Amino acid sequence: MPSHQPAAGMMAVDPAYVSQPSPMASKDEPNRSKSYDPKKPHITDTPLTKANWYKHVNWLNVFLIGGIPLMGLIQAFWTPLRLYTAIWAIAYYFATGLGITAGYHRLWAHTSYQATTPLKIFLAAVGGGAVEGSIRWWARDHRAHHRYTDTDKDPYSVRKGLLYSHLGWMIMKQNPKRIGRTDISDLNDDPVVVWQHKNYLKVVFGMGLIFPTLVAGLGWGDWLGGFIYAGILRIFFVQQATFCVNSLAHWLGDQPFDDRNSPRDHVITAIVTLGEGYHNFHHEFPSDYRNAIEWHQYDPTKWSIWTWKQLGLAYDLKQFRSNEIEKGRVQQLQKKIDRRRAELDWGTPLETLPVMEWDDYVEQCKNGRQLISVAGIVHDLGESNFVNDHPGGKAMIRSGIGKDATAMFNGGVYFHSNAAHNLLSTMRVGVIRGGMEVEIWKKAQQENKDAYIAKDSNGSRVVRAGFQPTKVFEPSATAGAA
Ligand SMILES: [Zn+2]
Ligand SMILES: [Zn+2]
C-alpha cells in the first residue's frame, strides 16, 4: 500500500498536516539551499533596520526578476528586432506561460487532470523556461495559498498589499516556517517533479536562455536577438503576466461565487494570464481543469488541456457538476439581494408594533387621527399626509379611516397592487387585538412554528411579492361592515 494511503483505524486527518511548519523547514527535505538550518532563528524573525535591511532581501530573486530584464532592456537598444525573432518570442512566451498555467498550476498544484510522461516532460521544461522556481517549490506555495488564502500563512497574501502579492513576497526573504503546511507527497512521488527540482538551475538556463537563443541562431542566424527578445525580455513578460494571478486576480473584478475572500473574476486578468483570470471560480472549484466555464470566456489554458486530451496526451480532466457551480452562484446572488433588501424600508416589524384595542382605534380616529386598519394592522396616513396623495382620490381613502378597510383594500372597492401593499406597510403603527392574520402569525411565533416564515441572512422577515400581511385573498364577510 502506498505510504500516504489512509487505512481503517487511522485518524481522519494525519496530524503531520495540521498547522505544522512547511516541509521546506525540515532538514530531511531536498532543499536547494545547503546553508539552511531550521533550528537557527530566521532573518525574518529580526526587525528590519538600516543596518540589516540587505539581509532581508532575496538577492537571487532581485537578480532573476529585476536584474536580468534590466540588462535585456539596455541590450535591446542596439539589437534590432527581426520579424522571425518577434514571432518566435511571442510563440515561446505562450509555451512557457502554458508551462506555468497548464503545468505548474492546473496539473501539479491542483491535479485537475492527468498527463502522460511526454506531456509532463514538455510542461516541466517550458515551465522551467518561465523562471518562476521549481514545480515542487511553486506548487507547495500555491497549495498553501489556496488553503490559507488571505491569512499570514498565505505566501502571497493580497492583504499585505497589491505590490507585495505581485513581487514583494519574492524580493523579500520569507520565513519557511510561516508558510502554511501542505501535503506534497504526490509531488515527491513524481519523478519528473523531483528531477526538475534537483536540476533546477540547469533547466532555467537551458530552457530560459539557451534554447530560445539556439532556435533563433540556428534557425535564421539571429543569435543576439534570440537571446535578448525570446530569452531575457520574454522571461520578463511571462513572469509579470503570471505574477498577476497572485495580485490582479485578487484585486480586480467580480465575486460571483463567494465574497468572503479576495479572489475575483475579470476578463482583463484572464487576457494577461492565459485564462487564469476567473479566479473567484478557481478558488471555489480549484480541481476543475477549467477557470472559465463559459465557451466565450478567454481561457487558452483550458483549450490547450482539452486539445491534449484529444491527442491522447492528457486524460481524467476533472470538472465540477454544473449543479454545484450554479448553487454557489445562486447563494452569492441571494447574499447580494439580502444586502439590497436591508437598505430598504419595509415598515416597522410586526412583532414590535404596539397592540391596540379596536375601540381605542375608533376613538383616536374620531379625535382626528387618520388611521386605517387593514387585515388587523393599523396604518397612520396623517404623518405623510397620504390622503392628499392617494392615487384613487381623497374621498375613497377617507371612507376607510376608523373602519376595517380590509375588504375595501383587497378588492371590495379596489384590488390594490403589490406596490400599494408595500407602501402601506411603511405606514404601519400598531396591530388590533384579535385582528386577522397578524394574530395567527403571532400565535405561530409563540408556538415556535415560525419555520415557514422565510428570513434573510440579516434575520429580517422576507416579504415576497404579493405576500404582504395586508394582502387578504378572501376578504372576510364582516369586513367593511363596521
Ligand atoms: Zn489565488
Ligand atoms: Zn490555484
Automatic annotation (TrEMBL):
Required cofactor names: Fe(2+)
One of the record's GO cellular component terms: endoplasmic reticulum membrane
Enzyme class, UniProt record, top EC level: oxidoreductase
Swiss-Prot/TrEMBL GO biological process terms: unsaturated fatty acid biosynthetic process
Residue span(s) of domain Cytochrome b5 heme-binding: 353-433
Transmembrane region(s): 59-78, 84-104, 203-221
Gene Ontology molecular function, alphabetical: heme binding; iron ion binding; stearoyl-CoA 9-desaturase activity
EC numbers, comma separated: 1.14.19.1
Cofactor note: Expected to bind 2 Fe(2+) ions per subunit.
Signal peptide: none
Reactions this protein catalyses: octadecanoyl-CoA + 2 Fe(II)-[cytochrome b5] + O2 + 2 H(+) = (9Z)-octadecenoyl-CoA + 2 Fe(III)-[cytochrome b5] + 2 H2O
Family membership noted in the UniProt record: Belongs to the fatty acid desaturase type 1 family.
PANTHER family given in the database record: ACYL-COA DESATURASE, DESATURASE 1, ISOFORM A-RELATED
Protein name listed in UniProt: Acyl-CoA desaturase
Species per Swiss-Prot/TrEMBL record: Aureobasidium subglaciale (strain EXF-2481) (Aureobasidium pullulans var. subglaciale)
